[in-house]
Amino acid sequence: MGIVGNLNSNQLQFFNSEGYLVLESFASPDEIKSLRLKMEQLLDQFDCSSRASIFSTRNQQQTTDDYFFESAENISFFFEEKAFDDNGNLKQPKKLSINKVGHALHERDPIFKSFSSSEKFLSLLYSLGYRKPVVIQSMYIFKQPGIGGEVVPHQDNSFLYTNPPTCTGLWLALEDATITNGCLWAIPGSHKDGLVRRFIRDETGVHFDKPSPSYDQKDFVPIEVKAGSLVVIHGDLIHQSFENKSPTSRHAYSLHVVDTDGCKWADDNWIRRKVDPEPLYSS
Ligand SMILES: O=C(O)CCC(=O)C(=O)O
């Protein structure tokens, strides 16, 4: 018999009603250690003297360049907006200056690849109704102490659109995520209102097709989780995270998955692959 879905009916019910689900102890302490160690090695090897690309969800149009587009199939490094002083020099060591590394760690690095294609992800995705899921992007997000940038309210289907929409976010806490160090926040049930807008790539660059609605911060709930917990995020769920002004980092590894069966990848998404991603499969 092939691999079966591992979510029970209570978990599925919670996910369908709230638009997210926390799976505690999804990753073992050893798995977390090896992902973090590998990232330390990648950071050591990264030579930041030649270029600096900044990641900002507030200024996404201005900070999107070829380096960003090519990151879809590479391991690319993006700085925190507040990493630099007025002269363009880093205010803190390199490893405390990076906002995120993306977007193909799951393909390009053997440690991240092996973890991202493990059967527990496939089983989870089968539970959610996926037929032929692919990881379409991965991000190691640092939420650095003191300067970790905010992620403004959004829906993941805006950025990784299929018709019909099939994106799910799989967000793994590599450190405890708290209100103080910038945990995720979401509007429970907001996925039921459908997709609000899309992030389009065309010959002029990238833009949203509609302005963002204004959200009432009172509607958001914090999703505080322990290291090792996986937060499963419906593609239409409105979620965000605030700046990290605390002295404690909040590392996370995030995968975004779409289906490749029964839906069509939109050609005007920001990700334009030269080589199609391989679907997850059971070994
Ligand atoms: O890690 C964060 O702060 C936000 C991540 C997020 O919103 C996402 O992965 O969709």
From TrEMBL:
Keywords: Iron, Metal-binding. InterPro entries: Phytyl_CoA_dOase-like (IPR008775). Its cofactor is Fe cation. Gene3D superfamilies: q2cbj1_9rhob like domain (2.60.120.620). This is Phytanoyl-CoA dioxygenase. It comes from Rehmannia glutinosa (Chinese foxglove).
